[in-house]
Design goal:
This protein is of the alpha+beta class and about 150 residues long. It has one domain (about 10-145): Transferase(Phosphotransferase), domain 1 (Orthogonal Bundle), CATH 1.10.510. It has 2 helices and 10 strands. A 5-stranded antiparallel β-sheet has the order 1-2-3-5-4, with no helix packed on it. The protein has a 3-stranded antiparallel β-sheet with strand order 6-8-9. The longest helix is centred in the C-terminal third of the chain and has 20 residues, at about 100-120. It is globular, with a radius of gyration of 16 Å. This is non-specific serine/threonine protein kinase. It is an enzyme of class 2 (transferase). It comes from Kryptolebias marmoratus. One of its GO terms (molecular function) is protein serine/threonine kinase activity. Its EC number is 2.7.11.1.
Length: about 150
């Protein structure tokens, strides 16, 4: 992924923290000129041990741009309002996911992994927190812990 010039704080507003991991923070924000809601992954470069790349696949979260902000790499990406699979599982604790729903999620994850492997990427952190859904139930993966091999 190539880093774009400029400070994304000039084009984004209304930052709200929605998550935190070992390498940084995830916020939602709004683009000033379009009103589009986006997710912003703010990663401390000192904690990064891999190279994040821009992938184009229906089951991988779309990356819009990236920028260096002080010691952080900010990746501005598609915001998925369906949330993480972890949340869906917790909400449905009283009525379990049926076999067809489980198969749909599994298929989306496997398609994302197949694509990433074809791009030379090994994913090291597959878990329900990092499997995201669109409002209509499509599976997307942000690839937060991947590394490239030759």
């Amino acid at each position: 992924m190539v880093v774009d010039p400029g400070d994304p704080r000039t084009i984004l507003e209304n930052f709200v923290k929605i998550g935190e991991g070992s390498t940084g923070v995830v916020c939602i924000a709004r683009e000033r000129h379009t009103g589009r809601q986006v997710a912003v992954k703010m990663m401390d470069l000192r904690k990064q041990q891999r190279r994040e790349l821009d992938y184009q696949h229906m089951n991988v979260v779309e990356m819009f741009r990236s920028a260096l902000v002080e010691d952080e790499l900010w990746v501005i990406m598609e915001y998925l309002q369906g949330g993480a699979l972890t949340h869906i599982i917790a909400v449905r604790v009283l009525f379990r996911l049926n076999e067809e729903q489980i198969a749909t999620v599994s298929e989306g994850v496997l398609q994302a992994l197949t694509y990433l492997h074809s791009q030379g990427v090994i994913h090291r952190d597959i878990k329900s927190d990092s499997i995201l859904l669109t409002l209509d139930g499509r599976v997307r993966h942000p690839c937060p812990r991947s590394f490239r091999f030759s």
